[in-house]
Amino acid sequence: MSIKTKHTGDYIMYFTTYDYPSQFRATVTNFTKRTLKATAKFFSSIGASIVKGQQARADFWIINNMSNKQLKDIGITRGEIKQRFYGTDNKT
After folding, report:
1. What is the pLDDT of residues 26-48, one digit of tens each?
2. How far is it, in rounded angstroms, from Cα 59 to Cα 50?
3. What is the pTM of this model?
4. What does the DSSP 8-state code read for residue 1?
5. Of 7-11, 62-66, 82-86, which range is least confident?
6. How far apart are CA 62 and CA 56, in angstroms?
7. Rounded to an integer, what distance in angstroms lies between the CA atom of residue 61 and that of residue 22?
8. Which of 63, 87, 90 is nearest to 79 (CA)?
9. pLDDT tens-place string over residues 56-76
10. Pick from 58, 60, 65, 66: which is nearest to 83 by CA?
């Protein structure tokens, strides 16, 4: 936005002019930046969730394939594995 003056007789008239292409470019640029940032955050959170789930499955597999002696050493029984990992009953 810029202000231009026009001298007419005894007074000065002020006109506000707008640079629409520049304003449009700035608006589109800001919108694009916000959209890309939100999209990156979305996919990053999905990636983090996948990694967390994969790690939980790997840990469950490792503990589930331990011998009874190894399980006794860490203080759990084979029947408690699912309950400890998922907080569910062993009945399902």
Report:
1. 888 999 999 999 999 999 999 99
2. 14
3. 0.55
4. -
5. 7-11
6. 10
7. 58
8. 90
9. 999 999 999 999 999 999 999
10. 60
Question: What does the DSSP assignment read for 6-28?
Answer: EEETTEEEEEEE--HHHHHHHHH
Quote the CA–CA distance of 92 and 89 in Å, as a whole number: 7
What's the rounded Cα separation, in Å, for the pair 48 and 40? 12
DSSP per residue, 29-89: HHHHHHHHHHHHHHHHHHHHHHHHHHHHHHHHHHHHTS-HHHHHHHT--GGGHHHHHH---
85 with 62: CB under 8 angstroms?
no
Structural tokens at position 89: 């009953």
d(CA 43, CA 28) in angstroms, rounded, equals 22
Residue type, 72: K
